[in-house]
Amino acid sequence: MKKWKSSLLGLVIWSLAAGSIAAPKEMDKVVTLVNNSVILQSDVDGMLKTVRINAAEQNQPLPSDEVLTEQIIEKLILETLQLQQADQFGIRIDDTRLDQAIARIAQERQMTVAQLQQELASSGIGYSMFREQMRRDMTASEARTIQVRRRISILPQEVETLAEQLNKQNLQSVQFNISHIQLRVEDGASKAQREETEKQAQQLVSELKQGADFASLAYSYSKGPKALQGGEWGWMRQEEMPTIFADQIKSNGKGAIIGPFRSGVGYHIMKINDVKGLDTVSVTEVNARHILLKTSVILSDDGAKRQLEKARKKILAGEQTFADAAQALSADPGSAANKGELGWQTPDIYVPEFKEKVESLPAGTISEPFKTVHGWHIVEVLDRRNVDRTDAAVKDRAYRILFSRKFNEEAQAWIQELRAGAYIEKLGTDNE
């Protein structure tokens, strides 16, 4: 089996047995309570099996089942908490969105969906199981995104300051491939416990400098978000990293072991796996217009979709102009007052589903109705252009960098708060 390059696909593959999609087993038992949900022994066993398969294909040694089981239960706890949040928000990933996401994954792997199904089957993974775990991952991700976005505030002066730094230092030209180990210090830990964790971190650094495998140590010891991926974060620009990472990079090069260094959650160790150089910035702008309908107790999803289908038919038949329909129907007051037009924008500013539409639609084509977190839309791309906007592009980039950095930091803080406020009781597994 080939190593899965897509991060989402990788998560799905080694978490296919998680939660409600786990196959029922005789003598199955509850191993962990998470508020009003449970994690079953079959959940843990299924993921443990998949992690072993993935590691074997990569010739990656693994720690003991006891250590892996602890990591797996932690991941299942966090996934369950996020799914509980999604349920509270009423978040549902319908089959259309799910199929589109799977099609994108297949396209990224340069294959058809049918070929993807065959490859999954050859790995012993049922397609229906794959779909449902994809749905869980997308649901958890959407809940996280909605909550974390509310916590992020970016001031114009922050954008200006970072844009100046980008212009001076050309930070956007360098990318780092990094790996990370986090040793957690629990709230309320004693001085002796903190010192013991620091001593353990120093010992791990010593082992790494003597040639120990970073991924193996991450599997065994890390409590960080990428522990079950061997600690690997992949390629990131310095300004896109969490601040605690970016502050440590400095002039270190390929192969450098950095740390241990302290943050509010514990001690960290980083390795720079590789570095690559300059990128060129190409800015494509899209001029689009849309009509938005928001669902409510009065207007259902089906009702919004039908209204937009009717409006689209009238526009295509020449019975109504797009501008008139936008002014009459659209729940986006800013664009409705401007005949539905959004102006020249880079697609990256839009939510994923809208971004995909404006990037893929031929100019002059009106889309079928589609749904985003904002509601139901139809959109028409009026024109595209490639422009040299160096100053504006740097500011756009500065905003995205700040958002990405703050999103990563706030997402971790939100997840920690979820966990701290949850009722979690570990009842033990068959591996104990």
UniProtKB/TrEMBL annotation:
Q: What class of enzyme is it?
A: isomerase
Record's InterPro entries?
OMP_Chaperone_SurA, PPIase_dom_sf, PPIase_PpiC, PPIase_SurA, SurA_N, Trigger_fact/SurA_dom_sf
State the compartments where it is located: Periplasm
Record-linked Pfam families: Rotamase (PF00639), SurA_N (PF09312)
- Among the record's GO biological process terms, what is one? Gram-negative-bacterium-type cell outer membrane assembly
Leader sequence range is 1-22
Q: Which UniProt keywords apply?
A: Chaperone, Isomerase, Periplasm, Repeat, Rotamase, Signal
Example GO CC term: the record gives: outer membrane-bounded periplasmic space
Which reaction is catalysed here?
A: [protein]-peptidylproline (omega=180) = [protein]-peptidylproline (omega=0)
Q: This chain belongs to which protein, by name? A: Chaperone SurA
